Amino acid sequence: MGSGKTWSAAALSLTLTAALAQPATAAAPLLPDLRQAPVGCPGGYTGDPSLCRDWDVCVVTDPKAPNGDCVTSGEMKAVRIRFTTAVDNAGDGPLMLHGRRPNRSSNDMDVRQAFQTARGAAIPATFDDARRATATSMYYEPTPTHLHWHLMGFARMQLRTPNGRMVVADRKNGFCLGDRYRTADADRLPGAQRDAASPEGLLAERLRKSNCGRNDPDATEMFEGISVGQGDDYRKGVDFQWLDLTNVTSGTYDLVNTVNSDRTLVESRYDNNSSSISISVQWPGGAKRRPAVITEAPAVTLLKSCPGTDRCTDQSRQAGLARSGPVHEPAPARPECGTDPSCCCCACE
């Protein structure tokens, strides 16, 4: 006699039933990839980042004004460097963020991140469908230039010394995310929507039209995000889209912009979340510090643009620059102070 087990038809049936009842392995979600565009370049820009001039030096009379008029004479109280920033989604899946608060007496909404499980699969449409809690929140910004719900802490802007010490941090408090422009490489991204009737296409249409609940302070649920192959930009004329140079001494600095700096949002990679530029700041007359009474803005010169990295000024002294991405070195240029070009889509920002 053999030593193997003999299976009855009933036992085999029960075994197969139990096996089929086991939950299938969950498919890996399609993750976004938030890519910080070069500092001072418009969204979707494809040229040399060292030639970007979406930045300027703005002297204002009211240091507390989030978006004061630039002046070139009269009372000068604060000096700002204003610059455009943009974030692409170059990942496999969309960035989808659902906010909810329990009632109208609560000022902040909790935020969950949702994921698409496969291309063509259903898009999680509600807070309940989004299962991953995040450490961020949404709140309603009541100032006249916004009047909509902001996602907190999406990106950070800093001025740093060449050794990485932070000198000035931004005061920007929130973001209204949506599909504001098409990325330069969208045609090469498999997850970019190509069919308007697909789930991806319907999501993109929703995000193109999104104004983050403008004029709806009573909302208890909100949705923001960025489709694959799309981006969200903030032009330099938007509130708090600047760093304060008033008390910065003459010298060379890195201006660094980083998306998802605390990694509260899940992405497929994080090594492209920062971009930086190297700038020279020089107060008039070769002074080390600003004068007691400001009569002229400091000269601010763009030295380099360093997409894809948070270090720029000292890169030329280091070996192995290729690992951090390209360094673009333009001829020194001084921006024209007091300029204030029209802001695109201010109501969305």
Give the gist of this structure.
With 349 residues, the chain is mainly beta.
Detailed description of the structure:
- This protein is mostly beta strands.
- It has 2 helices and 17 strands.
- The chain has helices at residues 9-21, 199-209; strands at residues 34-36, 55-60, 78-83, 85-89, 95-100, 108-114, 132-141, 148-151, 155-160, 166-169, 181-182, 221-226, 230-234, 242-244, 251-259, 274-282, 299-306.
- Strands 8-7-6-5-12 form a 5-stranded antiparallel β-sheet, with no helix packed on it. Strands 10-9-15-16-17 form a 5-stranded antiparallel β-sheet, with no helix packed on it.
Key structural traits:
mainly beta; disordered N terminus; 28% strand; 349 residues
Helix-strand blueprint:
Blueprint: H1 9-21, E1 34-36, E2 55-60, E3 78-83, E4 85-89, E5 95-100, E6 108-114, E7 132-141, E8 148-151, E9 155-160, E10 166-169, E11 181-182, H2 199-209, E12 221-226, E13 230-234, E14 242-244, E15 251-259, E16 274-282, E17 299-306
Antiparallel strand pairs: 1-4, 2-3, 3-14, 4-13, 5-6, 5-12, 6-7, 7-8, 9-10, 9-15, 11-13, 15-16, 16-17
